[in-house]
Every structure is written in structure tokens, then in C-alpha cells.
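REQUEST FORM: STRUCTURE PREDICTION
Request ID: SP-0412
Submitted by: Lab K.M.
Chain count: 1
Length (residues): 279
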Amino acid sequence: MPASNQPSGFLRAGEFYSAVESRLRTEDMLLSELRQPCSRAVPRHEHELAYVTIVLHGDYVEGDHAKLEELPPFTAVFNPAGATHRTLIGPAGVALFTIELRGHNLQEWDLHLPPNTWVDRGAGTLLWPGLRLYSDLKRRVEEDVPPDDLELEGHAMEMLGAITGWQTPEQAAPRWLGRVKERLHEDFRGNLRIRELASDAGVHPVHLARVFRKYEKQTPGDYLQRVRVRAACRLLRHRDWPLAAVAAECGFADQSHLTRVFGKLAGSTPARFRRTLCA
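STATUS: Completed
RESULT:
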């Protein structure tokens, strides 16, 4: 809710008219899951930060003055900082996911956000990285695991590329892509950041994220998880390595993190996979 000492209709970072059910803060973004259980007319207001809203459920109308637009579930909306609007919520209430963008990092990356609201009803490129960020938030809240910075940053850079209209002119995989993958293989135990990879490659972080998706069909974070699981497979051949030690050696937060990612990629638990290997 807006703080009582704030000007009416001005929402600072993390403030909303609906209840916050879950939240994740990173250096670049503030992710919030919001829920309004019943109908409500939200007064005209503006937000301090530029942000993306994804409608997950319910009846939601947004706009300014007489220009109100119905936004059905799985619609993504970008609003620049300071844009004024009001919203109407229907009897079924609404569930929303918002991604607030921290301005100092946008300046650091020399990214210029558009001055107008933009709506993606699923045919564009804004909704899908936003939904991937939502899945990351829910997984971290439900499984109580720390955020994977590289995975989050990859989704965020794809989303920023969609908002800013960033183009990837390469018609063939650039040489620097191979260097990025080599770094992921060499330093998979560490907490890599997309800005480090981009600096090594000599390209912009948004450019790296979009080119990586184009040619590898996944984010750098997804690629890194596969490298880590492969390393874990090699260690699981040795019965004297406890699973917790395998997790730590391969860059996972803990044994439960290893088990979750291993199951997603290999279709088995590490313990069952070990039994199969050593039978």
C-alpha cells in the first residue's frame, strides 16, 4: 500500500494498491506478485519506476481518462516511469505480476526505455521472458532456494531487449558466443553474472542475452544449469562423494537445489541416477 507520508497517487518502488503475496529484490529489478480478491476502482496514480505488469487472472482494465483498455489474463503491459493511469478490477478480483526496473542500472547499460505504454497480448516478445521471471519467483519462494543471478539476469535482459526494440543483426553465430560458452564451462562452479560475460565478450548485456537465445534456444542461466548437471553426473559415479558435496562442488546452492535441477533435466533424482550408474 502507498505510504501515508507520500503524495496522493504517487507510488514509490514496491508500493501498490493491492496486497503483495511474494517478492524478490535483485540489483536490477523488484519482482512482486500481487492479488486483489474483489472488485475495486483504483484511483489515478503514477509509479516512481518504469515497470511491466503481467495479468495472471481476473478482470482488469487499465488506462487514463476516457481511454480504458481491457487486459485479459496473460497480457503484458509496459509503463514508463511517471505514466499516469487508473485501473478497474472486476468482481473476480485479479492476480498480477510486476517487474519494476531500477533506473541506475538502465543508465549504466545505456538503455533508453520508450516514453509510452506498450501492450503485448502474447504475439510479441515481452510476455514470455516476463512469465519466465514469474516462474523463477514462484520456484524460489516455494522451494526456499536463493536466486540464480545469471538465470534471472538472462530473462531480464531478454525482456529489456523486447521493450527497447534491441536488434540482433548477426546472420551467423558470432565468435564471441563461443567464448561465452567456454567461460560457462570453465567457471560453472562460481556465481557468474551476465554483465561479466558481456564484458568478456565485448558486447552489451541485452545483446548477449538475445543472441544467446537465438542460437542456443535457452538463456545463459539454463545453459549453465546443464553444464552443472553434467559435472554432477561425473561425480555421481563415485560412491564416496556425498550428495551434499556433489552439490557444492558443482555450483549448486545445496543438495535440494541439485535434486530439483537434476530431476528437471535428467528425469531422475541424483540418488537414483547413482544407483543406476553403479549397479
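NOTES: The CA atoms of residues 240 and 246 lie 10 Å apart.
Reviewed by: T.R.
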